[in-house]
């Protein structure tokens, strides 16, 4: 395995349980990839070191899978947003609509009102902007999505696919749960403990602070690679674009912002959101508090890639890399970076389970 995030950890575990011997190479000094969580020595708060991660899924098998290894605490993600000098509730729901337009709409009235704002000339929205204008209208789009999206992705919402906005619900009731999914929670002892337990099997050997190099392929029967697909080929035909994040860390006493995640939707504010980590563990008590101010920018050669950027017009370079990747006999590319796909944790685990099943049905059990 090249990498010790959810993808490779799950594949390693499944193979190990079927009798395979697995080695995992992780170039960082910890497992769990960008889901890594660690206690802040100063405040004792469990910190999502690479930014906020909330586990949510509709996939019962995936939910049962993660619950096999650690206890999950009930957690509902309720996000707030600062824009135009006020604090609103996200995702856009009846409270947001009533507050934003200064109205007292019922669900039906709000739906009719927003329906009247929608640009119905857009029949089949392809871009982020078309999707927004078609379903929430210009005013809400400009207040909540345009600036945030430009900061987050560094390109115009006219160039991004509609699928990115489809991640967020719009509700005509007061349900302010950020996600639609049936199951949602936070691992009691953090994501790193979860991944460590997934990897804790006599047939799995984990090498931390050790990069996987292409020359090592010959030592193994098969390699699952969760690093960036372009990196695997030494970027020989060019670099795929990613966004990276910078976090400005600050600490204070008590409750700093009153919620886990506060988005800053306006383009004039340079950061996208502030995360106050203690609110991810409401069952714990801490006097101090640690916050991350999150800035998004283009990923350079020495930065950690976070988000693959999908263009509505497609990506020729990606197609070339994917073509090469699919012709590799001994290497399977997995995960957000290996597949260059904006996947949530549950989707990553689902993909890993499917990959391993396909592999075993093809190669056979040990
Ligand atoms: N988004 C936005 N305003 C917000 C929150 C999200 O415009 O206040 C857009 C933005 O383009 C973002 C996308 O919706 O990238 C998906 O948001 P999500 O919260 O799922 O992003 P993640 O937590 O994965 O970064």
Q: Biggest sheet: strands, sense, closure?
A: 7 strands, mixed
Q: Work out the number of β strands.
A: 16
- Mean pLDDT comes to 97
Spans where pLDDT lies below 50 across 5 or more residues: none
C-alpha Rg (nearest Å): 21 Å
Describe the protein's architecture and organization.
This protein is an alpha+beta fold and 366 residues long. Helices cover 32% and strands 20% of the residues. The strands form five sheets. Strands 7-6-12-13-14-11-15 form a seven-stranded mixed sheet. The radius of gyration is 21 Å and the shape is globular. The model has no long low-confidence stretch (mean pLDDT 97). The structure holds uridine-5'-diphosphate. The site of uridine-5'-diphosphate has 13 residues, from helix 6 and helix 7.
Topology overview:
Layout: H1 6-17, E1 22-25, E2 37-39, E3 46-48, E4 55-57, H2 60-69, E5 72-74, E6 79-83, E7 86-90, H3 94-101, H4 107-117, H5 128-135, H6 137-153, H7 162-165, E8 183-187, H8 191-199, E9 204-207, E10 223-225, H9 229-232, E11 242-253, E12 261-264, E13 273-276, E14 288-298, E15 307-308, H10 316-326, E16 331-333, H11 335-338, H12 345-363
The structure holds uridine-5'-diphosphate (UDP).
């Amino acid at each position: 395995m090249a990498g010790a995030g959810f993808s490779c950890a799950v594949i390693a575990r499944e193979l190990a349980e079927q009798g395979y011997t697995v080695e995992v190479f992780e170039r960082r000094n910890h497992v769990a990839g960008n889901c890594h969580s660690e206690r802040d020595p100063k405040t004792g708060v469990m910190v999502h070191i690479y930014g906020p991660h909330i586990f949510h899924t509709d996939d019962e098998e995936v939910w049962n899978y993660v619950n096999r290894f650690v206890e999950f605490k009930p957690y509902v993600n309720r996000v707030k947003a600062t824009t135009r000098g006020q604090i609103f509730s996200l995702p856009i729901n009846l409270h947001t609509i009533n507050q934003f337009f200064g109205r007292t709409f019922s669900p039906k009235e709000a739906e009719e009102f927003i329906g009247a704002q929608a640009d119905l000339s857009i029949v089949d929205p392809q871009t982020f902007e078309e999707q927004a204008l078609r379903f929430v209208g210009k005013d809400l789009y400009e207040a909540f999505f345009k600036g945030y999206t430009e900061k987050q992705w560094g390109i115009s919402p006219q160039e991004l696919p509609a699928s990115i906005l489809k991640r967020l619900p719009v509700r005509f009731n007061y349900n302010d749960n950020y996600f639609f999914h049936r199951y949602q929670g936070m691992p009691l002892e953090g994501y790193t403990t979860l991944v460590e337990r997934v990897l804790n099997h006599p047939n799995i050997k984990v090498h931390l602070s050790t990069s996987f190099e292409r020359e090592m392929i010959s030592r193994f029967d098969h390699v699952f690679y969760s690093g960036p697909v372009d990196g695997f080929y030494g970027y020989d035909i060019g670099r795929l674009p990613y966004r990276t994040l910078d976090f400005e860390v600050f600490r204070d006493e008590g409750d700093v912002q009153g919620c886990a995640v506060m988005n800053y939707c306006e383009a004039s504010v340079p950061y996208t959101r502030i995360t106050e980590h203690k609110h991810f563990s409401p069952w714990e008590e801490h006097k101090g508090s640690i916050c991350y101010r999150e800035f998004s920018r283009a990923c350079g050669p020495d930065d950690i890639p976070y988000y693959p950027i999908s263009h509505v017009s497609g990506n020729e370079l990606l197609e070339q890399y994917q073509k090469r990747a699919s012709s590799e006999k001994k290497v399977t590319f997995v995960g957000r970076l290996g597949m260059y796909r904006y996947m949530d944790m549950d989707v990553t685990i689902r993909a890993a389970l499917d990959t391993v099943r396909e592999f075993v049905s093809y190669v056979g059990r040990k």
